[in-house]
Specification:
CATH topology of one domain: UbiD C-terminal domain-like
Distance between the termini: 67 Å
Strand content: 15-25%
Mean pLDDT: 95
Low-confidence stretches: 1-6
Bound molecules: manganese (II) ion
Radius of gyration: 24 Å
CATH architecture of one domain: 3-Layer(aba) Sandwich
Largest sheet: 9 strands, antiparallel
Structural class: alpha+beta
CATH superfamily of one domain: UbiD C-terminal domain-like
Length: 470
C-alpha cells in the first residue's frame, strides 16, 4: 500500500522519548540557577527563544523542573521527532488520513501519584506568570481533552488556563474552536463538561491539538488522529475522578469539569502576536483531581514566544501544500515564514514547465488564500529560489518582481481578528508574483559554478594564514 507517510513507520513520540532525543542531539540545555515562576522563567525563555530547549532545574519553591522552548525552532522539532521537516509534514498528512483508535490500558505512568484532597494548583505546579502585564499565572501547555456529549467524539486542543483559585482555573475559548461548540452543547443540556488537561504530552497529541478547524473536521476523533500521527495507538486510561479518557503517558493531568452556569474574568494575556489580549468572561474549570508521574516535568509555553507559533507551522504547511498541489501541478514546496509568525505569510515555490503553466502561479495565490483564512501575504517564486532563505526570497523580489504588474491585492478579505491592521478581522490580502515569465526564462538564468563536495570541515583555523602576512 502506498499511502502518504506510510514509509515513516511507527514513531516513539512520547514526551520523555522526545526529551531524550533532544539531549542526544545537543538541543536541550539545563538552567540550574534558582529562578522564580513569577516573570523570571518566561523572561529567560524569551531571551533564549529560538535556540535549544531549556530545562529549569532550580525553580524556587518547587521540586519539579520546568521545560521551556521545547518545539520552538526547526532544529528542536527535527531532533524531537527524529525526522527532518519534510518527514514532520508527512506525519501530519498521515495523521489526517489514517486515524488509529486509542488503546485503553489499566495502569498509567500519569496516575502513579493521585491528588484529590487539599489540591492547590498554584502550590502543586510551577505555573508561570509570563509578562508584567499579565494579571496572574497561566497554564499554557495544557491540552484539553473532552468527549462531545452529543457525538462521543474526542477533541484535544490547547487552551490557556488562568489560575483563579486553589482548585479553579478559567478556560479561554476563542470563537470557532471546537471546544467552544462542545462546551455550548453540554451547557444547553445543563451539564458540566468533564475534561482532562494534559501537560507534558506525547508530541503526536501536541501536534494534533495544534490543528484548527480548517485542517481538522469536528468529526475527527483527535485521540485517534494522534495515534495516526505516531503510527501506533495512543495509550489512554480512565480518569480517576471524571468519566473521561486520559492520555496515559503524560507528565501531569488535571481532571475536572467545566461549569455550565457561571463565568469568570479571564485575561488579559500577552498573545502570540506580541500584543495584550482583552480580558473577557470565560467558563470556569473546577478541578477534581491532579494526577502525575512520581517525578513529573512541567512544560510551559510563552504566549508571545516562538513555540506557540512553531507548533502550527508544519501543520499549516502540510495542509496548505495538500490544497495547492491538488489545485495546481506546478507547486513544489511552501514555507510559512518566521516573520509572519508561521501563520500570516507564505512563500510558495513553483516549477513552470511549459507555456501552458504561465499564469498558474497567480491561480496558486488564490488557492492559498482560500485554504488558510489567516494568510495575508503570498509570495510565489520559481523553484531555483531557496524558500527557507529569506535573503534568497528577497533576491527574487529584487531581480524578478515588476511592482506595477506583479502585485495583486484582494481587498476586504477575512483575516485574523487579533491583527490590529484589520478592521474586525477584515483586511486586504497581497499576492506577489516574483516568478520569471516562462517565455523569458533564458534571460533570467542564474549563474552556476562547477560542482564541488568541499565544505567547512575541509577548512582549518586562520592561524595557518598568519605566516603569509609576515
Ligand atoms: Mn478539534
Amino acid at each position: 500500500m502506498n499511502r502518504p507517510g506510510s514509509n515513516l513507520g511507527v514513531l516513539d513520540t512520547r514526551f520523555r522519548a522526545a526529551l531524550r532525543r533532544l539531549i542526544e542531539a545537543a538541543r536541550l540545555r539545563t538552567y540550574a540557577p534558582e529562578v522564580d515562576v513569577d516573570l523570571e522563567i518566561a523572561a529567560i525563555m524569551k531571551r533564549l527563544d529560538g535556540g535549544p530547549a531549556l530545562m529549569f532545574t532550580g525553580v524556587r519553591g518547587f521540586a519539579l523542573p520546568v521545560v521551556g522552548n521545547l518545539l520552538c525552532c526547526r532544529e528542536n522539532c527535527e531532533a524531537a521527532f527524529g525526522l527532518d521537516y519534510r518527514g514532520i509534514r508527512e506525519l501530519v498528512t498521515r495523521a489526517l488520513g489514517n486515524p488509529l483508535p486509542p488503546e485503553l490500558v489499566r495502569e498509567a505512568p500519569v496516575q502513579e501519584c493521585v491528588e484529590t484532597q487539599d489540591i492547590d494548583l498554584g502550590r502543586l505546579l510551577p505555573v508561570l506568570r509570563h509578562t508584567p502585564e499579565d494579571p496572574g499565572r497561566f497554564i499554557t501547555a495544557g491540552i484539553v481533552v473532552v468527549r462531545d456529549p452529543a457525538t462521543g467524539i474526542h477533541n484535544a486542543s490547547y487552551h490557556r488556563l488562568q489560575l483563579i483559585g486553589a482548585r479553579r482555573t478559567a478556560v479561554r475559548l476563542d470563537y470557532g474552536r471546537h471546544l467552544r461548540g462542545i462546551f455550548e452543547r453540554a451547557r444547553a443540556r445543563g451539564e458540566p463538561l468533564p475534561v482532562a488537561v494534559c501537560i507534558g504530552a506525547d508530541l503526536a497529541l501536541q501536534y494534533t491539538a495544534a490543528t484548527m478547524g480548517s485542517q481538522m473536521p469536528e468529526s475527527a476523533d483527535e485521540l485517534a488522529v494522534a495515534g495516526g500521527l505516531a503510527g501506533r495507538p495512543l495509550k489512554v486510561v480512565r480518569g480517576v475522578s471524571q468519566d473521561i479518557l486520559v492520555p496515559a503517558e503524560s507528565e501531569i493531568v488535571i481532571e475536572g469539569r467545566m461549569l455550565p452556569n457561571e463565568t469568570v474574568l479571564e485575561g488579559p494575556f500577552g498573545e502570540f502576536i506580541g500584543i495584550l489580549s482583552a480580558a473577557e468572561q470565560a467558563p470556569p474549570l473546577e478541578v477534581t483531581a491532579v494526577t502525575h508521574r512520581r517525578a513529573p516535568i512541567y512544560h510551559a509555553i510563552n504566549g508571545y514566544g516562538r513555540e506557540t507559533v512553531m507548533l502550527r507551522k508544519y501543520v499549516l504547511e502540510a495542509s496548505l501544500l495538500k490544497v495547492l498541489q491538488a489545485a495546481s501541478p506546478i507547486v513544489t514546496d511552501a514555507e510559512m515564514t518566521a516573520g509572519g509568525l508561521h501563520r500570516f505569510h507564505a512563500v510558495v515555490a513553483v516549477r513552470k514547465a511549459s507555456t501552458q503553466h504561465e499564469g498558474l502561479q497567480r491561480n496558486v495565490m488564490a488557492a492559498a488564500f482560500g485554504a488558510l483564512k489567516d494568510l495575508d501575504l503570498v509570495i510565489v517564486v520559481d523553484d531555483d529560489i531557496d524558500i527557507r532563505d529569506p535573503a534568497d526570497v528577497e533576491y527574487a523580489l529584487a531581480t524578478r518582481l515588476e511592482a506595477s504588474r506583479d502585485l495583486i491585492v484582494i481587498p476586504g478579505a477575512r483575516s485574523h481578528e487579533m491583527v490590529k491592521a484589520t478592521r474586525d478581522g477584515v483586511r486586504g490580502k497581497l499576492g506577489i508574483d516574483a516568478t520569471v515569465p516562462f517565455a523569458e526564462r533564458d534571460r533570467y538564468r542564474r549563474l552556476s559554478f562547477q560542482p564541488t563536495s568541499a565544505d567547512w570541515n575541509d577548512t582549518a583555523s586562520g592561524d595557518a594564514a598568519l605566516r603569509w602576512l609576515d
